[in-house]
Design goal:
single chain, Thiol Ester Dehydrase, Chain A, about 120 residues
Length: about 120
């Protein structure tokens, strides 16, 4: 779990029945950045995947596991010493079969940094 160590949630706005904006603050002094990368910290992609999972899990109040990542695009590097405040737009679709489909776009300022289409299962 990265919450409250690697990042903290500032607030979550519910935009519609299944759309949210989550605002997070990255811990720019976290030890992950000592190795990724020394002198030029960049948020690892796997950390962004975990952040999305943790936030979605808390929003739907269920433990979830990644089933498949259909599309992941990193369009800008997130340097926490320059851009430590992020907005994650989350569109969550829970199907009757127990699958949770998530579309995420993460931003710093107005710059889109990450786009993901992810499918989770409960458990």
């Amino acid at each position: 779990m990265l919450k409250d160590d690697f990042y903290t949630v500032d607030k979550i706005d519910k935009l519609s029945e299944n759309e949210y904006d989550a605002f997070i603050q990255l811990n720019r002094d976290h030890t992950i950045f000592e190795g990724h990368f020394p002198g030029k910290p960049i948020v690892p992609g796997v950390c962004m995947l975990q952040i999305v999972k943790e936030i979605v899990s808390s929003l739907i109040n269920k433990n979830i596991s990644l089933k498949v990542s259909k599309n992941i695009k990193f369009t800008a590097l997130i340097d926490p010493t320059i851009n430590s405040y992020l907005r994650l737009n989350l569109l969550i679709d829970e199907s009757e079969g127990g699958e949770i489909k998530v579309k995420n776009t993460s931003y710093f300022g107005t710059t889109g940094a990450v786009k993901m289409d992810l499918n989770y299962v409960i458990g």
